[in-house]
Design a protein that fits this description.
This protein has 93 residues and is an alpha+beta fold. It contains three helices and four strands; from the N terminus they run ααββαββ.
Length: 93
C-alpha cells in the first residue's frame, strides 16, 4: 500500500473510531508528536480533546462528504453533528 492510500485509510479510521466512541483508537490515528494550534500535544492531548467533545456532545458524529488525497496530504470535507449534553444543576441549601 502506498503512502497516499495509507493516509486516506488513516483518515477513514479516525472517523470510524470517533463515531463508535473508541477515542483511544481515534487518538492513535495521530502521530505521537502531533500539534494542535501550533502546540505539541501528542496523542494524549488529542485523546483529552476528543473526550471533552464526547462528554459535551455524547452523540457527536462525523460524516464524510468528500475527500481529496494527493501524496502525503489528505483533505476531508465533513459535517459534524451532535446534541449537547444537558446537565441538571441542583442547588444545595
Amino acid at each position: 500500500m502506498d503512502i497516499t492510500e495509507t493516509n486516506r485509510r488513516i483518515a477513514e479510521q479516525f472517523h470510524e473510531a470517533f463515531n463508535r466512541g473508541d477515542l483511544d483508537a481515534a487518538a492513535n490515528c495521530f502521530a505521537e508528536d502531533c500539534r494542535n494550534h501550533g502546540r505539541q500535544v501528542g496523542r494524549a492531548g488529542v485523546r483529552k480533546v476528543l473526550g471533552e467533545i464526547k462528554t459535551n456532545f455524547p452523540d457527536a458524529r462525523l460524516t464524510t462528504l468528500n475527500s481529496v488525497v494527493e501524496g502525503e496530504w489528505v483533505v476531508v470535507r465533513c459535517t459534524y453533528s451532535g446534541t449537547t449534553a444537558r446537565r441538571r444543576l441542583t442547588r444545595r441549601n
